[in-house]
Amino acid sequence: MSDEYFYGVTLSSSHQSETWDPEAKAEYPRSNKLLIRQALLGPDAKPDELNVVQVETMCLQDSIKIPVAILKVGETRHARLDIEFPDAPVTFTLTQGSGPVHLIGQHLLGALVEEFEDMDEMEEEMLDEEEGDDSQFKEDENKRKGATGKRKANEDEDDDEGEPKGKKSKMSNNAKGKATSPKKNAKK
Asked: Could you check whether the bond before residue 100 is cis, i.e. omega within 30 degrees of 0?
């Protein structure tokens, strides 16, 4: 079970960089994930000034620095980001402009490591139970298929008048949404 908390930081000329690293703090002994939902340009931002927010984080084998938002008064005051950072640390930097730029998101606290171990055991037990349930499901399914096959055979049989019985009876062209041919109407 994870807990969600609001996360927000303001980057400006006086505070150009912020690092999110809850694993460095002893108060968070759980797994952590950071979700940044949007970047907003504050009302005090200077006109005609680009504000560039860069993020530095770990990728598969190396760290990466990349801009995630470029904001300008009169053009773009906010950007919807929806970026997930499953691994700490993550550093946000205002590389250009004086801001203020507000980053808003959620800090997700996962389960404790012991809870993960318990969950693994529970998943194994559930898989074992499902395997037993699957065999019962297949038997029921085979029984239904057998009954359905018999019913289809009966539907396809013709009755005394030569018309098919059941759902597979033929519909006239008119019932199918087709117009009758002019030749047939002329004969009537």
From this structure: yes
Tell me how far apart the alpha carbons of residues 188 and 86 are, in angstroms, rounded to a whole number: 77
Q: Which ranges of the chain would DSSP assign to H, the alpha helix? A: 113-156, 182-187
* pTM (2 d.p.): 0.56
Q: Name the phi and psi angles at 117, rounded to 5.
A: -65, -45
CA distance 88 to 28: 12
Q: Provide the 3-class DSSP secondary structure of residue 13.
A: coil
The residue ranges of DSSP E strands in 13-153, in sequence order, are 17-20, 30-41, 51-58, 63-71, 78-85, 90-96, 101-112
Stretch 42-51: mean pLDDT, rounded? 92
Handedness of CA 37, 38, 39, 44 (dihedral sign): negative
